[in-house]
Amino acid sequence: MSEPRKPAEQASSRNPFSAAKGLLAGMRTTAKVMVRGAHTQQYPDERPNLPPRSRGVIALREENCTSCMLCARECPDWCIYIDSHKETIPATTEGGRDRQRNVLDRFAIDFSLCMYCGICVEVCPFDALFWSPQFEYAELDIRDLLHEKGRLGEWMATVPPPPALDERAADPAEVVAANKPPRVAREASATPRAPRTPREPRAPRPTGAAEESE
Ligand code: SF4
Ligand code: SF4
Fold first, then answer.
1. 119 part of a folded domain
2. Are 121 and 131 in contact (CB under 8 A)?
3. CA of residue 172 to ligand 1 center, whole Å
4. Is residue 165 domain-resident?
5. Which end of the chain is less enclosed by CB atoms within 10 A, N or C?
6. Separation of alpha carbons 69 and 85, rounded Å
7. For residue 209, what pLDDT is reported?
8. Is residue 111 one of the residues assigned to a domain?
9. CB of 129 closer than 6 A to ligand 2?
10. Does 72 contact ligand 1 (Cβ within 6 A)?
11. How much is the pLDDT for 171?
């Protein structure tokens, strides 16, 4: 059952001037849109003009990755797969200790599960993950969206350089640390100390005074 018409609607349907006004307003909008031109981009003939920091795909700089697993643990979709093993590095100095380091065997991201949140890029403490604006990696088989470390490394070529620093900004802490003069050996710079004079041995307390004080 249709609802009863409201009084304003009834008035406009009865008033021909009001109906014409509405018609003219609609035509004015149509004319405005016609002269403005279409916003549709004819992809792939026209390349979209995306911002340089767009989240297209994640690139891996393998040499920076320490297999710390932080990104894999923080990923809300669990779509980062890492395998690594430990390698012993022999001591370089006599009497020194051997060291151990992680060697990355596998690093893969499944882009069919990834939700492009960027948490992995943010949490990586060693600058091993970067966003690239490349987005043309659609596949016919969903299993091909699993990118192994070789392919993730290839995306590094498409990562834009970071924005330039403000001219008046202070130097980053890393640059300040790198520009510090080398530390002079303590033995060379320090003035030699005077030898200590041995203390006089204390005189034993008189036993009678000790008993009185008690
Ligand atoms: S962008 Fe988000 S969902 Fe995708 S791999 Fe990184 S943490 Fe996981
Ligand atoms: S990419 Fe970064 S956070 Fe992930 S394992 Fe490598 S070093 Fe750790």
1. yes
2. yes
3. 28
4. no
5. N
6. 12
7. 47
8. yes
9. yes
10. no
11. 84
Whole-angstrom distance, CA of residue 136 vs CA of residue 46: 14
Which regions in the chain score pLDDT beneath 50?
1, 209-210, 212-214
116 alpha carbon to ligand 2 midpoint, in Å? 17
What's the rounded Cα separation, in Å, for the pair 147 and 76? 18
**Cα 91 to averaged position of ligand 1 atoms, centre (Å):** 38
**Ligand 1 geometric centre to CA of 124 (Å):** 12
Domain of 111, CATH number, reads: 3.30.70.3270
**Most ligand 2 atoms within 8 A of CB, residue of 61, 67, 75, 104 to mutate:** 67
Cβ(75) – ligand 2 distance below 6 Å: no
Residue 194 falls inside a structural domain: no
| Number of structural domains found in the chain | 1
Prior bond of 181 cis (ω within 30°): no
CB–CB of 55/131 below 8 Å?
A: yes
Q: 104-162, pLDDT tens digit by residue?
A: 999 999 999 999 999 999 999 999 999 999 999 999 999 999 999 999 999 999 999 98
Range of the structural domain that residue 135 is part of = 57-89+97-158
- Tell me how many degrees the CA angle 152-155-160 measures, rounded to the nearest 5: 140
In a mutational test of the pocket of ligand 1, which residue from 55, 120, 146 has the highest number of ligand atoms less than 8 Å from its CB? 120
